[in-house]
Design a protein that fits this description.
Blueprint (H helix, E strand, L loop, with lengths): L3 E4 L2 E4 L2 E2 H8 L3 E5 H12 L8 E5 L6 H10 L2 E4 L2 H9 L7 E3 L6 H10 L3 E4 L2 H13 L4 E8 L21 E2 L3 H10 L3 E7 L10 H19 L6 E3 L16 H12 L5 E4 L3 H4 L3 E12 L4 E5 L8 H5 L5 E3 L9 E5 L8 E7 L8 E4 L21 E5 L2 E6 L4 H5 L5
Parallel strand pairs: 4-20, 5-6, 5-13, 6-7, 7-8, 8-9, 9-10, 9-11, 11-12, 12-13, 15-17
Antiparallel strand pairs: 1-2, 2-3, 4-14, 14-15, 14-19, 16-19, 17-18, 20-21
Helix pairs in contact: 2-3, 5-6, 8-9
Length: 413
């Protein structure tokens, strides 16, 4: 994994030893590789650059300002799901004209703020939202640029909690309701219709899901142009997966070929909303083994990081790769890797083979750049862990540890 490699027997982020970071900062902590972030952006953009795409990074994957600034410097825009993410993107230097406002529950206050800021477009997900956008824009004497998120009723082959394109989910306007939505847009004032968006799910390995949804999108474009609508922009969403523990994935070039094949000839501006694909493998969670517990039937490595720090295994049954920070030629013995939280679901995974890892040793939980710190909490009265950004041979703390004492200061006595 570029960005995280062994040097002289110690796992490093770029050129910085994770052991040295652990000694200076304490565990657990997240560390991100700026090198890997830049490489990931280039790897996504290059196969599509002839289409002049907007790569609108999904801020929800990792909203740290330092991460946002790295991607902004690469040329990224932002896909934001709320006013807070818009504020973060703007603070990081992302031009509002490159910010897409997504999400099913935009409030009128959020809509007004985004209109005043001048975001690129609102991805509308319901008929009531279209009405609210029109009303707020008219009250401000502004025009709201909108795209409709269409639910194409495609069953994404991913974890059921990550599928967003079938009938019966909260996301998007069902395809059968599209005529009603388009009629509403014709009738209401202060709206500028720009095009369509689809997003059938996240962490997709089967690029066929994209082919199916983009082909349906192309049909919609041709039909509604025939109905007199000018369609200038298509938002193809995100969802391209990354390999986790032991997984493999088809080359990204195959995804890019599908884009060219299905929508490349429509003459539309194209936007993409990758999150995990840009940041997922650019981060790890470093943790120390508190106890090596040997039960009657199982061995447990109990870490000082828990499900409050990385909830994906508990929420999505995800299995992240785990590496020992110090290389070892010792014979590996299987162990379940767990955290200290008072929940049986505080389990990173079963039967990991981690040679040379014992009580007091460090491990790095891979693919920790996406939906990791972003979804962390202080459950069980725990500190919020720091985040570190490494750039070649230097590092800096980009979020300090938030202690329980400081958290208590946020509350009423």
């Amino acid at each position: 994994m570029t960005g995280f490699t062994y040097r002289n027997g110690v796992l490093c982020a770029d050129s910085v030893s994770l052991s040295v970071l652990a000694d200076q900062i304490g565990t657990p902590f997240y560390v991100y590789s700026e090198t890997r972030l830049r490489e990931n952006y280039a790897a996504f953009y290059e196969p599509l650059k002839d289409l002049n795409p907007l790569i609108a990074y999904a801020v929800k994957a990792n909203p740290n300002l330092a991460v946002l600034r790295v991607l902004a410097a690469c040329g990224a825009g932002a896909d934001a799901t709320g006013a807070g993410e818009i504020e973060r993107a703007a603070e990081a230097g992302i031009d509002p004209r490159k910010i897409i406002f997504s999400g099913v529950g935009k409030t009128r206050e959020e809509i007004a703020a985004a209109l005043k800021l001048g975001v690129l477009q609102f991805n509308c997900e319901s008929l009531p939202e279209i009405e609210a956008l029109s009303a707020v824009a008219q009250s401000l004497n502004l025009v709201a640029p909108i795209a409709l998120r269409v639910n194409p009723n495609i069953a994404a082959r991913t974890h059921y909690k990550l599928a967003t394109g079938e009938m019966g989910v909260k996301f998007g306007i069902d395809a059968v309701q599209l005529p009603d939505a388009m009629a509403l847009i014709r009738r209401l004032p202060a709206l500028a219709f720009k095009g369509f968006q689809v997003h059938v799910g996240t962490h997709l390995f089967d690029y066929g899901n994209f082919r199916d949804s983009y082909a349906k999108l192309a049909e919609m474009v041709r039909f509604w142009r025939g109905e007199g609508f000018s369609i200038e922009r298509l938002d193809l969403g995100g969802g391209v997966g990354i390999p986790y523990d032991g997984q493999t994935q088809a080359p990204f070039a195959e995804y890019a070929a599908i884009v060219h094949e299905t929508v490349g000839d429509l003459g539309c501006e194209l936007a993409f909303e990758p999150g995990r694909r840009l940041v997922g493998d650019a981060g790890v969670l470093v943790s120390r083994v508190v106890y090596d517990k040997r039960g009657a039937s199982k061995r447990f490595l109990i870490l000082d990081a828990g499900m409050n720090d990385l909830i994906r295994p508990a929420m999505y049954e995800a299995r992240h790769g785990i590496l020992p920070v110090k290389e070892s030629a010792a014979e590996a013995e299987a162990a379940d890797v767990v955290g200290p939280i008072c929940e049986t679901s505080d389990l990173f995974g079963e039967a990991y083979l981690l040679p040379g890892v014992d009580q007091g040793d460090l491990v790095a939980i891979q693919q920790g750049g996406a939906y990791a710190s972003a979804m962390s909490s202080n459950y069980n009265g725990r500190a919020l862990v720091p985040e570190i950004l490494v750039s070649e041979d230097t590092f800096r703390i980009v979020r300090r540890r938030i202690s329980v004492r400081e958290q208590m200061g946020w509350e009423e006595a």
